[in-house]
Specification:
The chain is mainly alpha-helical and 212 residues long. Helices cover 83% and strands 0% of the residues. The chain has one domain: Up-down Bundle (Methane Monooxygenase Hydroxylase, Chain G, domain 1), CATH 1.20.58.220.
Amino acid sequence: MQIMGQFFSWVKSNEKEILVTLDDLAKKAVQISEELVVMLSDLKIAECHKKIHTIETEADSLVREVFSHLNKTFITPLDREDMQRVASKIDDTIDHIDGISARLHSYKVTTTPPYALEMANELVKGTKEVELMTSKLRNIKNPSSMLEHCRNTSAIEHKVDDLYSTAISKLFETNDPIQIIKLKDIYESLEKASDRCVDVADVVEDIVLKYT
């Protein structure tokens, strides 16, 4: 009986550990998006690119932890595949933001592109919604609240799409072809990072509908 109690205690501990690690991963998404805003606010701050890449590396470690916990845990708090999808989609968001930083750095962009800072600020809002919905996976007792975060993420993505369209339209009114290529790539990366937040929301919505 004591052994059985110890077993269930171990299972519960592992369940909690997986969800805490997922939450930590979502916090990294917020952290990296906020650092991107700092970078775009003053592209002369060289440390931002290094900080962003460090956060991305830390996030990769957390993703490995999630997958390791899932492989070692017999009973998982949610469907194993769903939790893998949440981790992977959050990781995709973080990777895209790291990619934006890398482009700004390698293209030697020294002046903040028009609309880029506004898009990055919306991206912060999107990652915060991702963090909120991920934190609530521990106890899905209020599905309407979680679905609201999913809808908010979608609304933010639409705002980013509008900013992207305006930015591209204005960009093609300019005459420097090299600059057009560079900035178009950066704008597209910002827009895709926002899309990845919606990917997380889609997975969370699937989970909510499955368990409620």
